[in-house]
Design goal:
- This protein is of the alpha/beta class and 450 residues long.
- It folds into 2 domains: 2-80 and 108-183 and 307-402 and 422-442, FAD/NAD(P)-binding domain (3-Layer(bba) Sandwich); 187-304, D-Amino Acid Oxidase, Chain A, domain 2 (2-Layer Sandwich).
- Helix content is 40%, strand content 22%.
- The chain contains 16 helices and 18 strands.
- The strands form 4 sheets. It has a 7-stranded mixed beta sheet with strand order 6-5-14-15-16-13-17. The chain has a 5-stranded parallel beta sheet with strand order 8-2-1-12-18, with helices on both faces. A 3-stranded antiparallel beta sheet has the order 3-7-4.
- The longest helix has 32 residues, at 365-396.
- It starts with a strand and ends in an 8-residue tail after the last helix.
- The model has no long low-confidence stretch (mean pLDDT 92).
C-alpha cells in the first residue's frame, strides 16, 4: 500500500510518524511519502506561526505518536495551567483553570508553535520529508483504484491513499469538493510575536510571577501575553509571547510595515490598564512598542480563516482514497485552543484505524480504506462539532463590543472562572486511542487494536 501525505506542518508530520509506528508490521510493507511545498525544513518551521497554548489532550495525542516528541515539548513549554482574565480597565474577571497536569496527566503548555513542529520533525529520518514539492492538483482516477497527485514542478505520483494535511487552503480538499468549501475570513485578525524577557521593564517582569498568563478583553479587541520558556527562575533568558486580536473587515497585508502596525496597536491598546502599570511603564504601551520595534523573529500578521463545516472529511462518495485532517478538514480560530491538539488526534485516529482494518484484519486495500474512512468520521466529526460550536463564543468575545455587550462578556468570563475544573473534562480528558477502542466493537470488527 502506498500512502501520500500532502503538507509538512504539524498535522502532516504527525500523521507520517503515526503511520510509520502503526503500520510497521504491514505485509507487504507500506510506502509512506511526505511532501512539503516549502524548499527546506527550516523554512517550513519558520512559517508555522507564533505562540500557542497546547491543551492536555493535544500533548496526550502527541505522546501517543512519539514519547520523545512529547518530552521535548514539555521541557520547553511554560506551564499555563492558570490564566488570568481581566478587562481593559484592569479589573480582575477571574483566574481560569486551563488544564492541570495533576488532573489530566498532561498540563496546558504555552510555547512557540515552531517548538511543537520542531519536536515532531526531529523524529524524522533524513529524506523522510520531500521538500519543494508544491501540489497542483489531486484526483481520484476513474477506475477508483488509485489517486493521482500532480506537483507544481510537473511531476506526478500515484498512491492508494492521499491524506490532505495542507491547511485551510487545502488543494487536497478541492479534489473532493472543488471550490465549494473554500477558506472563509472570520472577521478577526491577529498580530503578535515574541519579545525577549530581558527587554521587559522590572514592573512587568515582576508581574509575571503572579499572573504569568494574562488575557485582557476590551471594547475593541483582545490582548494576551505569557512566557514561552519553561520557568520564571531566570527572567534574563527566554521569550514572552504576545498577541492582539481585533475585528476588521479587511485584514492588513502580511507585509505591512512594523511602524504602521505599531501606530494601529497603540491607538487600540495604549489606554488599557493593568495593575502592573507604573507612570514610567504603562504595560500595554510597553508590550506593543517592544513587540513592534524589538521583536525576536518576525512580527506576525495572522488573519483568521476558517473552513466551513464539511459534510465529510473523506472521499467516501468515491472510493474513500482521500482523507483530510487538521485545518484541511476543520480549520478553527486560534482562540479555540484546540487546532494543534485536534490535528494530532486526527493523525492518531487515522493510523490506528488503518492498522486495524488493513494489518490486523488484512482486508483488501479498497475495503480497508472504506472502513477506515467511515470509522474516522464516526470517531472524530462529532467531537470536532462540539469544539467548533464552543469556539464561536471565543470569536464573539474578541470582536467590537457595545457597552452592554462588554458587561455581558465580563460577567460570562467571571462565571467561567467559577466553574469547577471538571467542566473541562470533555476536552482535556479526551484520549483518542481509548475512543477508538470503544468504537471498534460497535463496528462489527473486533480484533484487538493497539
Amino acid at each position: 500500500m502506498k500512502i501520500i501525505i500532502v503538507g509538512g506542518g504539524i498535522g502532516g508530520v504527525s500523521v507520517f510518524l503515526a503511520l510509520k509506528k502503526h503500520l510497521a508490521d504491514a505485509s507487504p510493507p507500506a510506502e509512506i511519502l511526505l511532501f512539503e511545498a516549502h524548499d527546506s525544513l527550516s523554512a517550513t518551521t519558520s512559517i508555522v506561526g507564533g505562540a500557542l497554548g497546547l491543551a492536555p489532550n493535544g500533548l496526550r495525542a502527541i505522546s501517543q505518536i512519539s514519547v520523545d516528541a512529547a518530552e521535548y515539548i514539555q521541557e520547553r513549554g511554560f506551564p499555563g495551567e492558570v490564566m488570568t482574565f481581566r478587562n481593559s480597565q484592569g479589573t480582575l474577571l477571574g483566574r481560569f483553570r486551563a488544564g492541570r497536569k495533576a488532573r489530566y496527566g498532561f498540563g496546558e503548555l504555552m510555547l512557540p508553535r515552531a517548538t511543537v513542529h520542531d519536536a515532531l520533525v526531529r523524529e524524522l529520518r533524513p529524506g523522510d520529508m520531500l521538500v519543494g514539492k508544491g501540489v497542483q492538483s489531486v484526483k481520484e482516477l476513474d477506475d477508483n483504484e488509485l489517486v493521482e497527485v500532480k506537483f507544481e514542478d510537473g511531476t506526478t505520483e500515484r498512491a492508494d491513499l492521499v491524506i490532505g494535511a495542507d491547511g485551510v487552503r487545502s488543494v487536497v480538499r478541492e479534489a473532493i469538493y472543488g471550490d465549494k468549501y473554500g477558506a472563509v475570513y472570520e472577521g478577526l485578525t491577529g498580530v503578535g510575536g515574541f519579545i525577549a524577557l530581558s527587554a521587559l521593564s522590572e514592573p512587568l517582569r515582576a508581574s509575571l510571577r503572579e499572573d504569568p498568563v494574562t488575557m485582557t478583553f476590551g471594547a475593541r479587541g483582545f490582548f494576551g501575553y505569557c512566557p514561552n520558556t519553561p520557568n520564571l527562575d531566570d527572567l534574563d533568558n527566554g521569550l514572552l509571547g504576545w498577541w492582539s486580536t481585533y475585528e476588521t473587515n479587511e485584514p492588513p497585508p502580511r507585509d505591512t510595515p512594523p511602524e504602521t502596525i505599531l501606530s494601529q496597536l497603540l491607538e487600540r491598546h495604549a489606554a488599557w490598564k493593568s495593575p502592573a502599570d507604573s507612570s514610567a511603564h504603562p504595560i500595554f504601551r510597553e508590550l506593543v512598542t517592544l513587540g513592534c520595534t524589538s521583536s525576536v523573529g518576525p512580527l506576525l500578521i495572522l488573519p483568521g480563516y476558517v473552513t466551513p463545516r464539511l459534510p465529510h472529511w473523506t472521499s467516501l462518495s468515491g472510493s474513500g482514497r482521500i482523507l483530510l485532517l487538521g485545518d484541511a478538514a476543520h480549520a478553527m480560530p486560534p482562540h479555540a485552543g484546540q487546532g494543534v491538539a485536534c490535528a494530532a488526534e486526527d493523525a492518531v485516529a487515522i493510523a490506528i484505524l488503518l492498522k486495524h482494518y488493513r494489518v490486523s484484519h488484512r482486508f483488501e486495500i479498497e475495503e480497508a480504506l472504506r472502513r477506515t474512512g467511515e470509522a474516522y468520521e464516526a470517531v472524530r466529526m462529532k467531537r470536532l462539532a462540539k469544539i467548533l460550536d464552543a469556539a464561536k463564543y471565543g470569536s464573539a468575545s474578541k470582536k467590537t463590543q457595545s457597552w452592554f455587550q462588554e458587561k455581558v462578556r465580563d460577567w460570562f468570563m467571571w462565571l467561567l472562572c467559577k466553574l469547577p475544573e471538571s467542566w473541562n473534562d470533555g476536552q482535556f480528558s479526551y484520549d483518542v486511542e481509548a475512543e477508538i477502542a470503544r468504537y471498534i466493537p460497535s463496528s462489527g470488527c473486533e480484533a484487538k487494536i493497539g
